């Protein structure tokens, strides 16, 4: 068979989808594909048509423009096709664009297209690029078919058979082999594949794979060191940032994980899931300003994304609500206004989701109260109370947020009752109980939480250094911010008992201890500090008998 007839035959067997908002370009691409030997070619003008077509038809080759006018762009088309598994591994996706900015390329690359074509395109360029990819597709089709079927052992067997007889695709085969071993949990074989590659040559994907194995084996320090080295060498390798942030989170180094994600979002700002991860880590670090910025970008990127969610709008509204309570920032009103606007947008955009309105009103209530609009807040609270009273099966996350609002508007008793019922109903859910305890301890804004935590750290340092007076002063100041914080109350009791033991002539420390322990009466048995509370109560009783 001649080369031209081979190429024509290769093109003829496949199905094609051309996605472009300009009809003339669609027709031009179809003409070029036909000249190469293709005849099963579908043309569509926008993202929605493309996704609908792929839902009901198998496509071998997708040629998609990056800029598609209103709605989704090419990156978001690829993102949705991958997310919904509408493209087989054997299918080819080529991004076609006149734009070559780093931001576009990095964003598109996050979803791993098989190649790029830069406009203007001629037949020779199109044919050359496609025939290389089609040849590879044909050679690796049996392996990809088994991976699509999730028959990983057979796919591994086929990779091993292909390695000695298919040297052209050795890199792809080794990478796939390592990934397949890892998917199956066969970490020793995965590590051997990656180590063998790294002994021959330093390749980014092999270093990343080796780091994944190290993390899975809980060798955190070595994995983190490997990933830092990889990023230093290849600062555009985005997968390394994500894995490094994950490794640092597993080590409890949340501040460092946040810095890594901030660096990554500068390199590639259009990755929605990474922006979301940054927002969540910043929240854990009580960096609410950074969290709000990342949630804003998450919401914006979600406008045409398969990953769009009411949760993103709600998280942004909650972050802005926190910021609106910070009167020192000078932007309290602006943050409150933005919070109400984003919550209103959420209600309209996700009107078909029953819980959205309830979740929105819970946050709106505390925003309005914080801005002095007490009448409006009270009206909302009345409707919320009626809804919670009539529906005892409301989601625990929503109940926690409602308790936060109750604390904010001064209904501490109602908040504690709600949290008490929640703890009783979910007594076997350790993570939820921790969140309930945290809210009971610190039902305040993030600035106050940070202040109380810093004072508590100062008190612990002073106590460890033997400076009991300084420790008592720090814990007392912290309790002025979070008066019901169980651990801080017990810390102060412990210090006061030490002070009394050092100088029993004054009974004042014991009276203060009694007042602090009385504040913790009714502490549930499942609370992590309950044993300590009982022990200190008994010690005080012995000293006052």
TrEMBL record:
SMART domains: REC (SM00448), TPR (SM00028)
Keyword Phosphoprotein: yes
Pfam families in the record: Response_reg, TPR_16, TPR_19
InterPro entries: CheY-like_superfamily (IPR011006), Sig_transdc_resp-reg_receiver (IPR001789), ST_Response_Regulator (IPR052048), TPR-like_helical_dom_sf (IPR011990), TPR_rpt (IPR019734)
Sites of 4-aspartylphosphate modification: 65
Domain Response regulatory: 15-134
Alphabetical UniProt keywords: Phosphoprotein
Example GO BP: phosphorelay signal transduction system
Tree of life domain: Bacteria
The protein, known as: Chemotaxis protein CheY
Species assigned in the record: Marinobacter similis
